[in-house]
Amino acid sequence: MSGKPRLTYLNGRGRMEPIRWLLAAAGVEFEEVYLETKEQYEKLIKDGFLLFQQVPLVEIDGMKMVQTRAIMSYIAGKYNLYGKDLKERALIDMYVEGISDLMQMILMFPFSPPDAKEKNLESIKERAANRYFPVFEKVLKQHGQDFLVGNKFSWADVQLMEAILAVEEKVPDVLSGFPQLQVFKTKMSNMPTIKKFLQPGSPRKPPPDAHYVETVLKVFKK
């Protein structure tokens, strides 16, 4: 096995995408194994790879890590993206948790019944524009820095950038009332590691389509 982290998940965004974003932002190359059948998933459980019988699974530094939050905390700490002290870490955690609430809505959207799609899309738009993005607009404006915590690139910035792009895919003008976030998005897009991740051919996954939804349901069906 090479020294690269090894990511096991489906060939799509889901709960692995923020992990891909964080590794890419840290400039870390990784390998991926894609689950395509229920049998592959069941074998991982049988072999004792999945502590709670759930993916994502990330093999890194001799560990088989599960639980998205734990994986990302480890990566952020390892690559110095987790603040300089406990107070900064607490802020990063707060921001990340908030963004995760918004991303959970986006994560579940492709699995909405057809008659609920429009209502769920309105919920995403309303939450982003009225609850979540105003918080980050205010944070950036108040301390006048390029990044959310201190003046240093952190896990929180990576999560926010992923969320902005994910919401914009569904609501293209969502940042129209948020000038600070527009500037933030431009600066983040031009950071070398993130710029590379946004290029075609990178490990970044496209928006979920019908095939991805079908694969998820097939692999994880009870």
TrEMBL record:
Residues 85-209 form the GST C-terminal domain. It is an enzyme of class 2 (transferase). One of its GO terms (molecular function) is glutathione transferase activity. This is glutathione transferase. The lineage of its organism: Eukaryota, Metazoa, Chordata, Craniata, Vertebrata. Residues 3-83 form the GST N-terminal domain. Keywords: Transferase. Its EC number is 2.5.1.18. GO terms for biological process: glutathione metabolic process.
